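Hey team,

Filing this mostly as a record. A colleague (T.K.) asked me to run one chain through the structure pipeline before their review meeting, and I want the input and output archived in the tracker in case anyone asks later how it was produced. No errors, nothing strange. Just documentation.

Input sequence:
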Amino acid sequence: MIRLSPLFIDILSELGLYEELQLYTLRRDLKKLIKPPLSLHIYPLHLKRGRLTVSVDSNEWLYEINLHKREILKRFSSYGVKDLRFRLGRVPKEFTTEKVPPQQKRCEIPPELQEAIARNIRDPQLRESLIKAVEASLFRSRALC
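Output structure:
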């Protein structure tokens, strides 16, 4: 959770924005607090006076999450959550998929360039460093990948 000065918290509370900030931060941190697959089936809807309403995408997961209510409440307490209410509803698509970084394709240096580097650079560490730098440059420019 983000640490804020008491004065800033008072100002946000006065404007009715502090719970919105806590809800935003909770949504951002959800997959750290609750691991998949459970986190893929829930979405924190709104936080009002310490009560968090959570949307659950199916009856099966609604039953499952109710079994873990006490533990979830402990994990969410630092976000201002004092009570939890689960309801059947939609979970936005971006919450249901895990973000997996795409596999990076390694660029191959043309054989004639590799031969020239091997012929002209005797130091093995320097040669390896130069090859890696050329591969990285090719990957960034996507010229020969």
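Quick notes for T.K.: Residues 124-141 form the longest helix (18 residues). The chain has a mean pLDDT of 82.
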